[in-house]
Structure formats: structure tokens, C-alpha cells
């Protein structure tokens, strides 16, 4: 089947779907599935804008609300993970995943689903060491610490994913796995993004948690976004035993969704022809959620996952075939994810702006139903209980505060890793300094104008799409000869425009980050993400 993969969407759903429709009209290529690697921005209303960690002047309504209201429907099944620029209050309603709109599915903090027999996993957010070992304690209305920590990856999600034993076909993360740049054309990457050089040379660019998952899961494909540059790599994994067959991962990072940018990729994935067209739960993943349910933590206290160090009675939470069979019996062997989307917030109405809308903590009925079906803890309900007991606070503050510098979103390492090179983060020229902003303005000054009713014609700039053959590796400038041979065999995928694309309603009204004194503090936010006319100076 044909799978379209997109980078940072930033709420530009109309642009994304129009591009897919243009692909079909021009080349008779229709993807069966669309994957988005974060910064999706499922913003429903003005209150959601206040929960998005960007300066106020970059908060724009975009077009998701039209799909949320039912005015429009996604023309292709869309599955996405969260990034670091999201309506965190909306996604927090669905910690185990769920529909944010008809035909648009969020994978949750971490998740695994199946479509036509293809196993798709993902982890949302970006890595920050000072929040990595905390629980999911945040709830709206957020303050200026929790509005950021809400999207930081937690060790419990990585731990759950590491219990998987069955093969993964596709995996998505927002930030790149650390070291992946050593398996692709690093010279070309640094030519396009020269400000990555210091972190690449010190091997601090990317997420160590994602790297750990890459080495453990060894998926066939791994897709990422976040750094706003297209990059492909081919990683050959070492076998854990003589009996294990060699595995390799084809990595692809996508650019952001802008005209004239290479933000969309089409690849062919082997699938089960006998499987249905519905999105399905993954039985092993459900069994793992049940097995790890007792580990759920909604406090700010740092804690380590169970490991074989003599301190834990149990450290292996992988599941048996019997446990997987029990899950199948619970659902009568019907793993189809119910189409039970229900709006939980008022939708943006351009004729009736609500500029002072305040976000509230909402318990989504999809999550309630999912937890009841599989005997799981509703994380938001647990947070609500903790809040009522006075152990969780969620005041919302207007003042912008300083944040630890994070040019690539992944410079720090958690305590369980060997080194901490958090002070080596380089300055990304795509970003702006908050000192120049004068702080966050009141939301009443923010733009909430939707995209024009008549979107631009992209027919003259169809460089946004590339069709990938079965393999998508590129040769590395410093890789071993054997790796180069593998890349040549798999085929380099750089098609230009001249090439044919036929190639292969329940609401309950609702910590500070631990900074490192040795790390330079800097105010900054990403400007290029929201500047529609952004072009890299090096291009």
C-alpha cells in the first residue's frame, strides 16, 4: 500500500490534503494512509491556542477546527504523533490515543496500532532530561513551566515501548534518534544546516531515548521531523544472537509543511491484502498497557523504571502469548478501533471570537471508554484526584519566563545516560530570541484568522512531494564501504519534478522545571516554524 509521510504540519491541514489531492489528479497516485510526525497543532478554539508553547504573536488558528467541527473531513486516514508545538490540553485528553476529528487519529503519549496488517508505533513529544523521569502531572490551565513540560517525553513511555517483542514496521518520533546522522549523508546535512555541526561532532544532536528505542525495536522504517530538514539514513543493526536475522532501519526526516519545501513523501509498504481497511488496536500493545498499568505516576517526583539491579522484584513487563490471547478474547477477536469521536470543546467561530477563553481540564469520553474496556487507569482522572488532594497545581500565568536553551530540542541527557553535554547546544538561526518580543502579549492581540477560503494554487510548485521506492537510503560521506554497498543496493531516492511519480462532553475544571545552574539561560522561540515565507539562508 502507499503511505504518505509528512513532517511538521503546524496546523496547515488544508495545504497537506490539497497536496495529496493534486498528487492524485496529476499522477493518479492516491495514498492509503497519511502519517504526520508531530507539530500537528489540533487547535479547536482560542483556549487551545493558549496551551500551545509559542509566543503569542505566532498563535494562529489555522484550519484544523474545520475538521473538528465537521465542516470538512480528512480525505485519507491520518495518524499522527505530538511534537513540541501542540494544543497540549487537547492531546492530553487522549493519553492512550484517540480520534481528534473524524478520520484523524492521535497515537497518544506512545502507542502502537495496525492498518492493513502494517504495525505502526510512535512516541509523542521531545526529549528533555529534567522531565524525563517525572510522571505526567501537568493539567490545564498550564503555567509557563507546565505548558512546556507537558510535551516532554517520559521514561514510562519508553519503558512500555521497550517491552515490545513482535516486529514493528513503522515507527514515528518527533525529534531524531541521537547518532542517526552518522548513517546518512552527514556532509550534505551540515551543508544545509551548518549550525548543527557542533552537536553532530559532539554526538549530542537528537534524542538519546529515541536512539535507545531505535536500537531495541529495529523497525523497518523510522520517520521523524522537528529539525525542518529532509534527511535519509540507513542503519544496519547488529543481531542479538546467532538465531536472529539481520535487520536494518530506513530512516527519513521530513521538512516542515511550506510551499516549495519537500515536506511530503510517498513510500510503498508491504501489507496484508486480506486485512480490512479499518484502523485496529494492537493486541500486544494493549497487553503491555495492562501489564504496566500499576506503574502510572502523576507526580513531579523523579523515578526510575524497574530494572534488573536487585532493587525491583519485577523488571520484565513484556507479555506472553497467553496474555495477548486474553486481550483478543476480551474483544472477541475484533480489534477495530471504534469511530467514537465526540467533540469535547466548543469549536472556533470566526463570527464570534472568544479571545479570553480559558482552557480547562477535560476528561475525554474516548479515554473513559478505552480504560473501562481494558481495565486501565485514566491518567486525567488520576490527575484530577491528585489535584483535589492538593498535590498537583495548574495555575495559568501570562508572564513569559526563561527556558533552558534547546536549539534542537534534545541537547540534554538524563541521569541514566553516561554523559551530559547539555551545554553544547548550538544557536539555530531559524529561531528568534524572546528578548526581542517584549514578552507574551495578551491573547486578544493574537491572530486567530483562519486560512483563506480560497487556498493558494500549488500546481506551479509541486516540489512538495517525492515518491519513494521500496528503499530510501542515501550514501554517507563517512560510512564504511559495506554500508555504501547496502545503500547502492537499496537505491537512492531523490526524484526531481521531472521524474514520474508512478514509481515504485465531560469536564472537570482543573512543578516547576528543574533547571541546571551550569547551563546558560536564554529566551527563545522558533520563528521559522510560523513564518510562511521562511527560506534557509544556505539554500
Automatic annotation (TrEMBL):
Subcellular location field: Nucleus
**Gene Ontology MF terms in the entry:** metal ion binding; RNA lariat debranching enzyme activity
The Lariat debranching enzyme C-terminal domain is annotated at: 235-380
Q: What is this protein called?
A: DBR1 enzyme
Gene that produces this protein? Dbr1
Q: Where is the composition biased (Basic and acidic residues)?
A: 486-506
GO CC aspect terms: nucleus
Cofactors demanded by this protein? Mn(2+); Fe(2+); Zn(2+)
Q: Where is the signal peptide?
A: none
> What InterPro entries does the database record attribute to this sequence?
Calcineurin-like_PHP (IPR004843), DBR1_C (IPR007708), Dbr1_N (IPR041816), Metallo-depent_PP-like (IPR029052)
Q: Which family does it belong to?
A: Belongs to the lariat debranching enzyme family.
Query: Which species is this record about?
Result: Syrrhaptes paradoxus
